[in-house]
Amino acid sequence: MKVAQVMAGNEEGGLEKHFIELCNGLVAHGVDVVAIAHSRYADRFVPEVTIESVDLARGRRNPFALYKLYRALLRHNVDIVHAQASKAMAMVDTLLPWLTLPAVATQHNLKSNNKYQHFAGVIAVSDVAAAALKHRYVTIVHNGIAPSLQPSQATLNRLTNELELPEGPIFLSVARLVPAKGLDILLDAWQQANVAGTLLVVGDGPEEESLIARTNHLNLSQRVRFLGHRDDISALICLADALLISSRYEGGPYTLAEALLLGCPVLSTRVGMVPDYLPAQFMCEPEAPSALAHLLTTHLGEPKGLREKQGGIFVAARQSLTLEAMVQANMSVYRRVLDT
């Protein structure tokens, strides 16, 4: 089986992580993969992945980008095309009438109203996303990850010293600093919540300056720290008493999977695949600072108790939120489409 994986973005986040790990995971199972994406990701694929560097970030209707994508798909003589997220889906959908290829699309969020008219199958990354899709063949495949190794206590001690973390509970937010992630909402909620402890915000993005200003305006500078981009997310999750997700909308998020696989409790807005794993008591509605503040106040007073309450969720995550489970599910979709 030869599969062309198509991604049109050139940013850094959950979509890009998904694309790269899926490509690498598929070749480990004997699938011949052609990764069609921006050149900035080329060094992140295993050698068995065929890389076709094409800049598709200029616009989904850009004739030059569409022509390059069309030529790439013809040149590699693939059996099936898999478009990742709205922009790639729109571009592949435009070309499919001129290609004698079956195609699959993965919808990563709810922003698109794409009708997928030329796709043989559509993958949704959550139950909520699946319910919004109008297609004859929809499959739910949650975003899985390769489980991270548990860092040693010595590593955690070094990190604690490096960051000069204070005594008391540590809570963590890991996200791109963009409006969709709702960090402004989290800061407002943190100011309202009756919670002792320090909030670490990990990530960078265009909202960083305004979020730091908001932190200062809310007199939170002693309770909130911005750490910027970090490569040691797993260790930070293991240090944390809970991961906090405040997104306005989401596909995954990947941080949910990583935290649950590492046994870190999660409190979140009701977005993406979060409702597929967290009971209602650990969620609140998006864009509601007061509701989020109430959620935080309710559960973060006794972090140890929260970890015990979510023990069963950790077990469920280890069964279905792995990279292996995600790869196998995607392969099942390909086989079904090719056999139809």
From TrEMBL:
This is Glycosyltransferase involved in cell wall biosynthesis. Residues 13-147 form the Glycosyltransferase subfamily 4-like N-terminal domain. It comes from Paraperlucidibaca baekdonensis. Keywords: Transferase. The lineage of its organism: Bacteria, Pseudomonadati, Pseudomonadota, Gammaproteobacteria, Moraxellales. The keyword Methyltransferase does not apply. Pfam families: Glyco_transf_4 (PF13439), Glycos_transf_1 (PF00534). GO terms for biological process: carbohydrate derivative metabolic process. One of its GO terms (molecular function) is glycosyltransferase activity. Residues 166-303 form the Glycosyl transferase family domain.
